[in-house]
Specification:
Blueprint (H helix, E strand, L loop, with lengths): L4 H18 L5 E3 L17 E8 L5 E6 L5 E6 L3 H15 L3 E2 L5 E16 L2 E16 L2 E15 L5 H20 L2 H8 L1
Parallel strand pairs: 1-4, 2-5, 2-6, 3-6
Antiparallel strand pairs: 3-4, 6-7, 7-8
Length: 192
């Protein structure tokens, strides 16, 4: 015996499935502009650092996503994202008392990996983003190097749209850069 709420629930479920399948996906071109959370300090003491950011990924594509009809769409980061990262890292270093300009003190941040994969499960899509960055510092006879990796996951009722993918990649890279600049050893080598 069906109760009175069952037909309403079925209508809502069918409507929701049409809504999900009716929204068209397209290729995604994401803006990578991560925010870095750095506290202010004077550890830099006004020292000047030459800062570089490079895209060292072997593939410019972040990944591919499939919609409910199994159509495949490309996900890429818009070109020029290294400038955004350089500006954000530079601003964070300035909040720590450093200056950014030509210098004998060199700091290079390499974006090694940005990879997105989305898998459809019953009633949900699970999207993973892997990000790897590395940093090297040369300051006289002192060197510093570190490699940071993160994998973040987001579940959505439908395939990930550009807003979902953009949020995922920016949160991941923001976390890595914030952790990178939170390293006492990195800051000590820069400030030496």
């Amino acid at each position: 015996k069906l109760n009175q709420k069952t037909p309403i629930f079925l209508i809502m479920l069918v409507s929701f499935s049409f809504l999900i399948t009716g929204c068209a996906l397209n290729d995604q071109y994401l803006v990578l502009d991560p925010k870095i959370y750095a506290t202010e300090s004077d550890i830099g003491g006004g020292k000047t650092i030459e800062l570089g950011v490079r895209d060292k990924r072997s593939n410019s594509k972040l990944g591919e996503i499939k919609d409910v009809r199994k159509d495949t769409f490309s996900v890429e980061v818009k070109q020029g994202f290294t400038t955004n990262i350089k500006n954000q890292v530079g601003d964070a270093l300035e909040r720590k008392g450093f200056k950014i300009d030509e210098s004998d003190i060199k700091m290079v941040v390499d974006v090694e990996t940005l990879g997105l994969s989305s898998i459809k499960y019953p009633l949900t899509f699970k999207t993973d983003l892997e990000a790897i960055i590395s940093v090297t510092v040369e300051n006289g006879d002192e060197n510093y190097g570190n490699r940071l990796r993160i994998v973040t996951t987001k579940e959505t009722p439908g395939p990930p749209y550009a807003a979902d993918s953009t949020e995922l990649v920016n949160e991941a890279v923001s976390t890595l850069l914030t952790d990178m600049l939170g390293s006492e050893k990195l800051l000590k080598v820069l400030a030496k």
